Automatic annotation (TrEMBL):
Name of this protein: 4-diphosphocytidyl-2-C-methyl-D-erythritol kinase
Domain of life: Bacteria
Top class in the EC scheme: transferase
Biological pathway: Isoprenoid biosynthesis; isopentenyl diphosphate biosynthesis via DXP pathway; isopentenyl diphosphate from 1-deoxy-D-xylulose 5-phosphate: step 3/6
Gene that encodes the chain: ispE
Database matches in InterPro entries: GHMP_kinase_C_dom (IPR013750), GHMP_kinase_C_sf (IPR036554), GHMP_kinase_N_dom (IPR006204), IspE (IPR004424), Ribosomal_Su5_D2-typ_SF (IPR020568), Ribsml_uS5_D2-typ_fold_subgr (IPR014721)
Active-site residues from the entry: K12, D139
List of residues binding ATP: P97, M98, G99, G100, G101, L102, G103, G104, G105, S106, S107
All copies of domain GHMP kinase C-terminal, residue ranges: 210-259
Amino acid sequence: MTTSITLPSPAKLNLFLHIVGRRPDGYHELQTLFQFLDYGDDITLSLTPEQPGIHLENPVAGVPDDDNLILRAARALVARARHELPGVSIGINKRLPMGGGLGGGSSNAATTLLGLNHLWRLGLDYDELAEIGLALGADVPVFVRGHAAFGEGIGEKLTPAFPPEDWFVVLKPDCHINTAKIFSEQGLTRDTPRIKIAPAFEGDASRYRNDCEGVVKRLYPEVRESMEWLTQFGPARLTGTGACIFGRFPTESAARIIWESKPSGITGFVAKGVNVSPLHQKLTELE
Ligand SMILES: C[C@](O)(CO)[C@H](O)COP(=O)(O)OP(=O)(O)OC[C@H]1O[C@@H](n2ccc(N)nc2=O)[C@H](O)[C@@H]1O
Ligand SMILES: Nc1ncnc2c1ncn2[C@@H]1O[C@H](COP(=O)(O)OP(=O)(O)OP(=O)(O)O)[C@@H](O)[C@H]1O
């Protein structure tokens, strides 16, 4: 019986993000294209039958344990199981910047849900896990389902998509952006006309934009400056509500050349866009 697994918790990019309306509860209705990156955190889940309960080995800096999406995801599964489960110890190797628009916290929640479902042999399917995940964050369902997708609603209505698996230079301007703050800005575009999407979206995402970009560039000069630099080499775009921006390149070497020439002081990484989540690739290997 497996007692310990290490699983990827990848980043996502919003290749485009249109705000098409607002629900009565204030949440914004989106049309977005999600793709995963082969870059992210690693989460290790180890059963501790001799020690009951859920133990976090390394807290996430600045996040109280009770708010940590890893712990909240694990507790949501315990509540669903309604019977005694062996204890688990959870470790994380954090690489993704927080407040980056890369969905790090949501991805951590999804990896925990799928990993514990596997270790605890709960037998929950993706529909059940995505429903549990949505209560934790709007971005959790796409990480649970694990395929690049066109997202509608608040991001939970997902249609599998097949954008090209290009290489990306991802830059993290030196600022922390709060998602709720951007969504509450007065100047935000909220009325982009809905686009029609074929069941399997294969379109060219570069025709579309991120509606948060104007507001974010106005409020955060760090984002504007990084964007101006990256735009020299091709279109650059914001992911989610920022702060990270990305440029798309056809090969790894093309991306690395630009990465090597970045001004000192800018952090980030080079990664490949992938349509099947590295988490699901790993879980398939384990089956
Ligand atoms: C911007 C995206 O990253 C796009 O993928 C996501 O929609 C954000 O997802 P997330 O970080 O999981 O966001 P949540 O934790 O669910 O929401 C944070 C806050 O942002 C606002 N919010 C979020 C998502 C949305 N579609 N409309 C909103 O107005 C709400 O005030 C909410 O309280
Ligand atoms: N395990 C976790 N890892 C990172 N952030 C977490 C975690 N648990 C809770 N959080 C909280 O969630 C917030 C958003 O984190 P996250 O890394 O998902 O941001 P993001 O990349 O901007 O995501 P998004 O694209 O979904 O807006 C953090 O600022 C933090 O307060």
